[in-house]
Design a protein that fits this description.
The complex is a heterodimer of chains A (about 475) and B (about 1050). Chain A has about 475 residues and is α/β, with parallel strands linked by helices. Helix content of chain A is about 30%, strand content about 15%. Chain A folds into two domains: about 90 residues, no CATH class; about 350 residues, Alkaline Phosphatase, subunit A, CATH 3.40.720. In chain A, about 60% of the residues are buried. In chain B, α11 packs across α12, α32 crosses α33 and α34 packs antiparallel against α36. The longest helix of chain B is centred in the middle third of the chain and has 25 residues. The chains are: A alpha/beta (about 475), B alpha+beta (about 1050).
């Protein structure tokens, strides 16, 4: 045996006898998927830029665009104008989708839902959201959101990536890239999806919404699956148990380390660490999704759907569990809010999916002390028109897409609680005060996470890109 | 290895490639990167954003006295130069760049700028825009090829030495993976290692370049550039068929089509004289972009986006330029204006397209116009034969037609009592009231049809009230006609000429009674669009209706609606017919006519004649008094309804024509470029917005680059010729730089995606230029260039590193060692299939469906035809990954984990990550588990009798290396332990070996196979296996 082989043998022996203590290795070559905070964003400036209010964000995306005048922005005065044409002075020649641009008339459709004041703050919410009403004092409702796109695909892509076109990183990827992960067993950015019951065949979602764009791909959101393994390929194949897997990984590490001893590529050590991380995930993820030890009270709080995997309620509970485990960015996407026709029924379905569980999530985080450093965002990609798409009757109407104003709410860390921000005109068509552009919202979310949105940039094709393009202002009025 | 301190110093302070302390500062290498990044944003090419009138990218401007009276740059006098003052001042208001830009200039950069000004502040044109000249090859002892001479000259300058040649097994694995994307077989490895001939390596390279797998492997990357996919990419993300284009790319690489022709055919093959099918198929490159078919979109907005996508993709792919930055404003860094951008845009602006899905459906998929049918040689022969038969039938029909007047004359006396005629006839319905419910205008035409005009409501309902016909009604005939006034001169009112009829409601209202709805039992049409069959009109739940491919087919259409119970004659009763269009906005019928029949349901025929009333009248008219039109009608009626030799000839012709059409329907189509007869006007779009046209522009290439070649036409073909003109400074540089990246991990200029002003200054600028010149000199010979690179000593050296080497040159830019990096996702999977003996090497054809996780297309979508993913049975599971069906919004998950782009936009560079999710895929995804079992079987069947022999064979298959004893001991121990375990747990063994669709080999004890399976998996997960080193 020559000298090299001796060294190799020695190395292998040590590996074998070290047994399972490969954790030691991972501290040398930490994973890049779940970079620890100290390792975030190589060669980027130090983040956070300032003390963050929120350590993590739970973004409850309501895909399809919920109707603002039926949920958050009451316009009782519209009753007088029921069925009358939307005045030209309000429409101001703004473009419409071709789904309604050919309509002969644009009859005003007042909301058929009642609004009530809630909490000490007196926050006004639709009767469709009784549970959210019970946490009204935690909310900052924004009635003056606006965006640029008028169709779903570009609009939701815009909210998520700051561009209507494909190719840019999503907000969660930016945060993961800039801030890194706070744990060693789970991804920094997790996505959970659910279909709505209000409109079951609704707008789809796209991988690009949680894509890392031009950022290194380890920053892409990991979409948990609602059936089978929550994380792709998590389970060992049938007939291969954890003990055997451990033994195989020990062999693999031994051989890889021997190769490293000869070849010297640091990437080999990283690979060894990644396999160890994968092994840990095989227990950390099942542990995460196992809600069997949740108390009856907690489960009841989220409502009966919590027992059905893949529902919004079940995902809200998972969101809390992810937050407890310090996952940086947790995003739920609930589909089914695109109500061109039959809005009253459809929106009832959507609210019954989301109202109780959303409120429960806020309460649950609060009772665990997590609401203080968790930011919650609830909202969709644009608003809907005051005029009816299709026929308007006493009990039925539909609403087309409307980018000029819409509503959403924030809660949790650093948020100006118990307030309502911004104002729209009588027709809920134009913003009259304190408009908040999508870029402004994203800048504000980043600000609460301790990131100056102008400084978190990535050089791609010669240009320093950022989530907010060249726009966006932190909205002070939304901050505590 | 020796490092000169000076080298280390410069590495730490600025970058590896900047001027050392003693060396003269070079503008392009040292200064431009600083000015471009820190200054040009406000003092560069974009004159709309220029601050203080100061421009630093042009020397004459930078030397002028500025608005403030000071001079930015005074050659030789840094202390008098305002630039130096402003970047060094401590005054917060004056410091440049302004702190809000977050682009502070470092001390080292200040030093460089000072020295540069002191040395005379000489400018150079941006290196990538300068003409390509072939530099002299340095004389370096021991350098085998010009490539090595350049590399070694630079290494020597920095006191570095090259590494020794890699062992032969490493070489064959490296070059095989690099050129064909598959691992060498054990036989190939052993033969090569044993071959001591000096030509052995070259023979290997030649064999690989000649293999058909080469084209597949090269095509794989081109698919990223071309954003190739099998789906339309927006919202419903339904299917399309572009695989004939992919086949073209594979063939082009295998045929070694010179890169200039490769370029011209893809950019403008359709405009070549007498363009062949292949040359037109090639233009699919610029149709691979996404197409938005979402309801409610404004088509023009998305037509503009598609064209901008073509500009971006073309400029990234061929020019390495970010022209997309000029969509909204002049470029911030490069000398391109917004006008340049839209002039380039104008080349792609003239395709016959609308911006939304046309000729296909947003939900059920298909190709959007323009597209073409594609035939193989064999199919072409068959099609030609069918077409010849149709021509022959046409001749026979015309001969028979000559007898028509005689035949009609003989038949006329029998007309009056003809039962056939009465039964099959439709009587036109004339409405007492007809209107559009939502305000369209319906105008009666001479033939009794009604033409819609005026407003086109989102979802119109046509009201048609008529008196009950004298003999009652059993069925209704809806005839739809094309009309020149309709969009696309087609049948429907939507912008693409389509309609979707969702309901045909029939009510009967007795005099003074209420309308009673009748049940339509049956609906038949002479044509239905795929996914919009006529039956949908009767199915309320379908949410769909009847459509007729209005965008592409402009023939009159008929649909017949048969009532469940015939309506008896009834005086004073009214028929109330309602035609609803409620599926898709604006898809209303354009021109239609309604008739009824009273015959028994079994006797009504869709093709029954509609002109019986008229015919009876004509026959009653004396021959001499009949008008030519009447004679024509009579003849037409006879031909359609009466048996005769002519009718037989007509039927034969119809059958032959239909055979041609049916066969054509089986042929694949692929989208292509096709110029409209009249070019569209192009405009600068303010802020890049489709509805804000400003000044008109004409087709032109960017002003700062050399002009189009003399004699080049001013169209896409001319643009293509310009791309590959010898004067074009970018195309050859971009290609060789990316070829270098393929083999060496990094480009010579690392920013292979951008060679503009913000590009990295190349680590070996002379070599880059030499290669570019050589590429053009070779006649754009891609295989020759690849050979040149892989034959170099630089390529063939060992990739082993020491910590000191890593510290000195972490990214291996100087190539003092061989390159080592992880394989792409596609190669990782293809290699596993090959190692496991599962790979099906079939080349080309439609996309296939390998294993994907259950519900991969359904978790986030309930729309479109790409749902309910089912893996293929058989060979589709084991084809190379470039054939895997690619749905852009839910792309193949394993490929996503391995850094593949979604293919929504042009991607010229992938990241190369290393994550636990990749580990999980390689350990647990069924493809890899099944491949491990394949390898286990081969180890047992082919490896030999002992575990040692089998392990050695398995290791050789997986790594191309011989297994050495320490590792052997580790593997042997694990194998034995797991064998014992599986012998005690045979149920688990059976489960493990039954993963995947292929059956485990017979004659191997299941516990033994399971144990080998686990060890094979260990081998296939080795770092050195997923890496090419």
């Amino acid at each position: 045996m020559n000298a090299t082989s001796f060294r190799l043998q020695d190395h292998l022996n040590r590996r074998i006898f070290m047994g399972r203590s490969t954790a030691a290795l991972s501290s040398i070559a930490l994973s890049s998927l779940m970079k620890s905070e100290s390792q975030a964003a190589p060669a980027v400036r130090a983040f956070p830029n300032f003390a963050p209010k929120a350590k993590r964000v739970i973004y409850l995306f309501q895909s399809g665009a919920p109707s603002q005048m039926d949920l958050f922005d009451p316009k009782p005065q519209m009753e007088k104008y029921r069925g009358q044409d939307l005045p030209a002075s309000i429409r101001q020649g703004q473009r419409l989708t071709t789904m309604t641009s050919g309509q002969k008339s644009f009859p005003v459709a007042p909301s058929m839902f009642k609004f009530n004041r809630h909490g000490k703050s007196g926050t006004v919410l639709s009767e469709l959201m009784p549970h959210i009403g019970t946490v009204a004092d935690e909310l900052c409702v924004v009635r003056s959101m606006f965006t640029e796109a008028i169709n779903h695909d570009p609009a939701i892509t815009f909210c998520q990536t700051g561009s209507q076109l494909a190719g840019r990183p999503s907000i969660g990827s930016w945060l993961g890239y800039g801030l890194g992960s706070m744990n060693h067993d789970l991804p920094a950015y997790v996505v959970l999806t659910s279909f709505g019951t209000g409109r079951t065949n609704d707008q789809p979602l796209y991988d690009r919404l949680w894509s890392s764009g031009f950022l290194p791909t380890q920053h892409q959101g990991v979409k948990f699956r609602n059936a089978g393994d929550p994380v792709l390929y998590l389970s060992n194949p049938e007939g291969l148990n954890r003990g055997l897997r451990r033994q195989m990984l020990d062999e693999l590490s031994a051989l890889n380390e021997a190769d490293h001893a000869q070849g010297g590529d640091p990437e080999t050590l990283t690979r060894i660490a990644q396999y160890e991380m994968a092994f840990r995930m095989q227990t950390s993820v099942p542990d995460l999704v196992d809600t069997s030890k949740e108390s009856k009270e907690v489960l009841e709080m989220y409502g009966p759907d919590v027992h059905k995997p893949g529902t919004y309620a079940a995902n809200c509970l998972l969101a809390r569990r992810l937050a407890e485990r310090d996952v940086r960015c947790i995003q739920l996407f609930h589909m089914g809010w695109d109500h061109h026709g039959g809005l009253p029924n459809a929106i009832r379905g959507q609210c019954s999916d989301t109202d109780q569980a959303t409120a429960a999530l806020i309460k649950d985080l609060k009772q665990r002390g997590l609401l203080d450093d968790t930011l919650i965002v609830w909202g969709g990609e644009f608003g809907r028109t005051i005029y009816s798409q299709g026929t308007l009757t006493e009990t039925n109407y539909g609403r087309d897409h409307h980018p000029r104003c819409f509503s959403l709410f924030l809660a949790g860390a650093g948020v100006n609680k118990g307030t309502t921000y911004g104002e729209t005109d009588d027709y809920c068509y134009n913003i009259v005060r304190d408009g908040v552009h999508v870029h402004d919202l994203n800048a504000t979310i980043m600000h609460l996470m301790g990131v100056d949105h102008e400084r978190l940039t990535y050089r791609f094709q010669g240009r320093d890109y950022r989530l907010t393009d060249i726009h966006g202002n932190v909205v002070k009025g939304l901050l505590a | 290895m020796i490092f000169r301190p000076q080298f280390l110093f410069s590495l730490i302070l600025v970058s590896a490639f900047s001027a050392g302390a003693a060396e003269r500062v070079q503008f392009n290498r040292d200064v431009r990167p600083i000015l471009s990044d820190k200054c040009f944003h406000c003092h560069g090419p974009d004159d709309k954003k220029r601050e203080a009138g100061l421009r630093l990218d042009v020397r004459a401007e930078a030397l002028k006295k500025g608005e403030s009276g000071s001079i930015a740059i005074v050659p030789g006098k840094p202390e008098l130069s305002a630039v130096v003052e402003r970047i060094t001042t401590t005054a917060a208001d004056d410091i440049m760049p302004p702190p809000k830009m977050h682009k502070a200039v470092t001390t080292a950069e200040i030093d460089l700028l000072r020295r540069w000004i002191a040395e005379g502040a000489e400018y150079q044109g941006h290196w990538a825009f300068e003409p390509v000249r072939s530099p002299k090859v340095p004389q370096v002892a021991g350098a085998a090829t010009p490539v090595d001479a350049f590399i070694r000259a630079r290494l020597a300058k920095d006191g570095l030495a090259p590494s020794p040649e890699a062992d032969k097994a490493t070489q064959i694995r490296r070059v095989t993976l690099d050129l064909v994307g598959l691992p060498p077989t054990p036989e190939e490895v052993r033969a090569f290692v044993a071959d001591s001939s000096p030509k052995a390596y070259e023979a290997l390279v030649d064999r690989l370049l000649a293999s058909q797998q080469y084209g597949e492997h090269m095509a794989r990357q081109w698919l990223d550039f071309a954003r190739f996919a099998d789906s339309n990419g927006f919202q419903t993300d339904s299917s399309r068929s572009m695989w004939p284009w992919r086949d073209w790319v594979i063939r082009a690489f295998n045929d070694n089509l010179p890169y200039d022709q490769f370029t011209v055919q893809q950019v403008a093959g359709d405009l070549l004289p007498n363009a062949t099918q292949d040359q037109i198929v090639a233009t699919g490159f610029n149709r691979n972009h996404r197409i938005n078919g979402e309801g409610g979109i404004i088509a023009e907005e998305w037509r503009i986006e598609n064209i901008i996508d073509r500009v971006e993709t073309t400029s990234f792919t061929w020019l390495g330029l970010t022209l997309n930055c000029c969509r909204c404003h002049d470029h911030k860094y490069d000398p391109f204006s917004q006008k340049d951008f839209y002039s380039f845009f104008a080349f792609f602006n003239n395709v016959e397209e609308s911006g939304t899905i046309q000729g296909a459906s947003n939900r059920s998929g298909g190709n959007s116009v323009p597209f073409m049918k594609v035939t193989t040689a064999e199919q072409k022969t068959k099609l030609d034969a069918l077409q010849a038969a149709a021509s022959e039938a046409g001749r026979a029909m015309r001969a028979a037609e000559k007898e028509l007047p005689k035949l009609v004359a003989a038949w006329e006396p029998t007309v009056a009592g003809s039962k056939l005629v009465a039964k099959s006839a439709w009587q036109r319905l004339d409405p007492e009231n007809i209107e559009s419910k939502f305000g369209a205008t319906l105008t009666r035409q001479a033939d009794g049809s009604y033409l819609a005009s005026g407003t086109n409501p989102a979802k119109d309902v046509y009201v048609f009230d008529a008196a009950m016909p004298a003999d009652g009604a059993s069925a209704f005939l809806l005839e739809c006609f094309p009309d020149p006034s309709l969009p696309n001169q087609s049948l429907g009112r939507n912008s693409n000429g389509n309609f979707v009829l969702t309901d045909f409601d029939v009510f009967v209202q007795k005099a003074g009674g209420k309308p009673v709805k009748q049940t339509v039992a049956k609906a038949i049409a002479d044509y239905s669009q795929k996914g919009y069959e006529i039956g949908a009109v009767l199915d309320k739940k379908s949410g769909r209706g009847w459509a007729i491919d209005g965008p592409t087919k402009r023939d009159p259409r008929r649909a017949m609606f048969v009532l469940e119970k015939p309506l008896p004659p009834q005086a004073g009763a009214k028929l109330l017919l309602r035609l609803r269009h409620e599926a898709i906005a604006n898809h209303n019928i354009g021109r239609f006519r309604l008739s009824s029949a009273a015959a028994d349901a079994v006797d009504v025929k869709l093709d029954g004649d509609t002109s019986l009333t008229e015919i009876k009248l004509i026959v009653a008219t004396p021959f001499a008094k009949r008008s030519p039109a009447q004679v024509k009608s009579l003849h037409a009626f006879f031909r359609a309804n009466v048996d005769s030799p002519l009718r037989a000839a007509d039927r034969a012709l119809a059958a032959a024509t239909s055979a041609v059409m049916k066969y054509e329907d089986t042929l694949p189509t692929t989208m292509v470029m096709k110029e409209a007869a009249t070019p569209r006007d192009a405009f600068i779009l303010t802020r890049g917005e489709y509805d804000k046209p400003a000044a008109k522009v004409t087709m032109a290439t960017p002003a700062v680059l050399p002009p189009m070649p003399k004699g080049a036409p001013l169209n896409r073909l001319g643009l293509a010729q310009w791309l590959v003109a010898p004067e074009n400074p970018l195309t050859a540089r971009v290609w060789v730089n990316r070829a270098w990246e393929r083999f060496f991990g990094n480009g010579l200029c690392k920013t292979t995606e951008n060679l503009g002003s913000q590009a990295e200054y190349p680590v070996h600028p002379e070599l880059l230029d030499w290669l570019a010149a050589e590429f053009m000199r070779s006649g754009w010979d891609m295989k020759a260039m690849m050979k040149l690179m892989v034959m170099s000593q630089t390529y063939r050296q060992s990739s082993a590193v020491t910590p000191a080497m890593v510290a000195a040159d972490p990214e291996n830019r100087f190539l003092a060692r061989g390159p080592r990096f992880r394989l792409t996702g596609e190669v990782v999977r293809d290699q596993a299939l090959a190692i496991g003996g599962l790979l099906v090497p079939k080349i080309g054809g439609p996309s296939v469906r390998p294993y994907m996780p259950e519900g991969v297309w359904d978790e986030t979508s309930k729309y479109g035809d790409l749902r309910g993913y089912k893996a293929d049975a058989g060979e589709g599971l084991y084809r190379r990954t470039l054939y895997t069906i690619w749905k852009r919004t839910a792309a193949p998950p394993t490929m996503m984990l391995f850094d593949a782009p979604t293919r929504e936009i042009c991607t010229v560079k992938r990241s190369r990550t290393n994550t636990p999710l990749q580990a999980l895929a390689l350990l647990n995804e069924v493809t890899f588990v099944e491949a491990a079992r394949g390898l286990a079987q081969l180890m047992i069947q082919k490896g030999g009798a002992t575990p040692e022999e089998r392990l050695r064979y398995g290791y050789l298959r997986a790594t191309a290396q011989e297994l050495e004893s320490p590792a052997m001991a580790v593997l042997l121990k694990g194998l034995k332990e797991r064998l014992a375990w599986y012998q005690a747990h045979s149920e688990d063994a059976a489960k493990l070996v039954s993963q995947g669709q292929s059956k485990p080999a017979e004659g191997i004890a299941v516990p033994e196979l399971a144990a080998y399976c686990t060890t094979a998996s260990v081998l296939m997960n080795l770092d050195r296996v997923v890496t090419r080193q």
